[in-house]
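Dissemination and training. As part of the outreach component of the grant, students in the summer workshop were shown how a complex can be specified as a set of sequence lines and then modelled as a single object. The example used during the hands-on session is reproduced here so that future cohorts can follow it. Participants entered these lines:
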Amino acid sequence: QKEVEQNSGPLSVPEGAIASLNCTYSDRGSQSFFWYRQYSGKSPELIMSIYSNGDKEDGRFTAQLNKASQYVSLLIRDSQPSDSATYLCAVNLRGNEKLTFGTGTRLTIIP
Amino acid sequence: NAGVMQNPRHLVRRRGQEARLRCSPVKGHSHVYWYRQLPEEGLKFMVYLQKENIIDESGMPKERFSAEFPKEGPSILRIQQVVRGDSAAYFCASSQSTLEKAFFGQGTRLTVV
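and obtained this result:
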């Protein structure tokens, strides 16, 4: 099992719909979880961080964390073409001081 | 309030030359991470440093690659005797602590010809 796993996609979502991105991780004791957005040819940009179970909302973005099931998800409401990018899940695995990334999910919003 | 600064943005080296990549973290951040990204691939961890210490270099090839983060000055990722396979984007990120959010620089695109 990979330490941090994401479906590589591509995921296509119509404009205005909800895009749902999922990530699972291997270590139940992990404490910090992050979502980054990366446009083609650009550097990753932090969009959400979450540390405790439940939902965290920021504008059109909602991060959801379920430590018992070891998954973290990102919902994007009212999807816009500008949301088309690769979304990277990152986890600070317990006992491991580096930030471990999934391979990313490529999201395309269809106008 | 500058973010993570990396230079150069683009670097071209001939096979066998040395590449030196620099990263200045966000002011006040003492944790620096280096990642490598090949086209259409994910971020691969290389090395994690705190001031004057290498904490985890498990992702860095044992030969030709080295990294440092001195007490004063930027973090440096050094690649000796570059080969074509070293061509990639190299990203640096910094954070205040291992549990805090990390911010990325713009990256250095290394091309080996």
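The interface with chain B takes residues 31-32, 34, 36, 42-46, 49, 51, 88, 90, 92, 96-104 of chain A (CB under 8 Å). Students were then asked to discuss how this feature might be tested experimentally.
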